[in-house]
Each structure stands twice: as structure tokens, then as C-alpha cells.
Amino acid sequence: MIITIDGPAGSGKSTVAKELSKRLGIPYIETGAMYRAVAWWCRKNNVDISDRRQIKEALERMDIDFVTSGDTFLVRHGSETINNILYEPEIGELASKLAQIPEVRKFLTDQQRKLAASGSCIFEGRDMGTVVFPDADYKFFLVTSLEERARRRVLQLKEKGIEVSFEETLEAIKKRDYQDENREIAPLKPAPDVKIIDTTNLTVDQVVDSIMSEIDAS
């Protein structure tokens, strides 16, 4: 069973996917972290992202593993788990730029499909239901007001030890939305057969209950 949960930054995809994975007993894959991992690797290795050759070489020698541990998705560099350091604002901006590059998207799409081949999974991201898994068993798209998404992201970053202002976060999300919605390759948009859920005034449990109702009804 493949379940996709798409939506813009800060719409609650990761939190909802994690809770859903607990209820269903299947792993979830945070694909945004995969793009951030590529961004982190490129920054670490001083890759010029305007140079396709450098990007291709960086992907070929990327020393990063994507693994699941229970209901947690882990990004590892050697023996070190690096999830927390992937959420710096600069990494997010670089990840959005890299997401527009065909070589990066193909590399990570292949990685995501390999993870799916191992068994049932929940995939959350931006193009899971439209490009990566167009034939997924269940597709959901989360939407949330811009202000609520900024508030949630500030709290999420604070939990990771990263302090940012609400205004700075709001502007970063606006910029990310524009880049994601207007890129030529796999732009952020709902799939034709997706279930759209507005999470602005819903708790995590209410969103997951809505998803579970759709799954149980089929």
C-alpha cells in the first residue's frame, strides 16, 4: 500500500505522516528531508549548483543514507543522524533551487521508488501523488493558511534548536511557495484524484482521523 501526502511547506505533512504511520504500522518517508540532504551535501562540498556537471558528480559520490527506524525517517551521514541540521533556513532555500534541477529530481525519485519497493509506505512531499507515485493507493493534499504555516514552522524550528522570527519565516514560506508552484519540473499542485484537507483549524488527530476514514471506507 502506497499513501501520498502532498502540500506546501508548513502544512503539517511530516507531523500527520508520522502519526498516520503509527496508526497503520507502516513507515513514512519525509521526502523534503531528502532534498535538504542533497542541499546540505552540496553546501558541505562547495558545489556550484549552477554547474550541472558538479551537481552530477556530487550526487554520484553522495555519502548519505535514507533509512526508516520504526515510525521515524532518518537521514544519515556515516554513523551520524543529521535530520536536525537540515532545517536551517539556508538549507531550505538551497533545497528549493535544487528541486528545479532535473538530475536532482531523477536521483531522488529513483531513491523514493526504491524505498517503496520494500513494502507499504507513506510518502510525504510535494509531487508524490502527481509524479513519483501517480498510481498510489491513496492520495491526500494538505492546505493551510500562510500565517498558520509560518507559526507552525517557527515552533518546529524552535524544537530543533533553531531560532527564527515569525516575519522571517513568513517571507521564507512565501518565497518557497512561489518557487515550488512555478518550477517547470513537477510543480506543486494537487493531483486530479487527490483528497484535499484544509488543516488550518484542525488538530493533528483530526487530520489523521479524516485520512483514516478515507482508507477505511475503501
Keywords:
globular, 218 residues, single chain, Rossmann fold, 9 helices, alpha/beta, five-stranded parallel sheet, three-stranded antiparallel sheet
Write the layout of secondary structure elements.
Blueprint lengths: L1 E5 L6 H12 L3 E3 H14 L7 H9 L4 E5 L2 E6 L2 E2 L7 H10 L3 H16 L3 E5 L2 H5 L5 E6 L2 H14 L6 H17 L12 E4 L5 H14 L1
Helix pairs in contact: 1-9, 2-4, 4-8, 7-8
DSSP, total strands: 8
Distance between the termini: 13 Å
The main sheet comes to: 5 strands, parallel
CATH topology (level 3) name: Rossmann fold
Count of the separate structural domains: 1
N-to-C SSE series?
A: EHEHHEEEHHEHEHHEH
Give the averaged pLDDT, no decimals: 93
How would you describe this structure to a colleague?
By secondary structure, the chain is α/β, with parallel strands linked by helices. The chain has one domain: P-loop containing nucleotide triphosphate hydrolases (Rossmann fold, 3-Layer(aba) Sandwich). It has 9 helices and 8 strands. It has helices spanning 13-24, 31-44, 52-60, 89-98, 102-117, 128-132, 146-159, 166-182, 204-217; strands spanning 2-6, 28-30, 65-69, 72-77, 80-81, 121-125, 138-143, 195-198. Strand 4 and strand 5 (80-81) form a beta hairpin. The protein is globular, with a radius of gyration of 16 Å. 36% of the residues are buried. The mean pLDDT is 93.
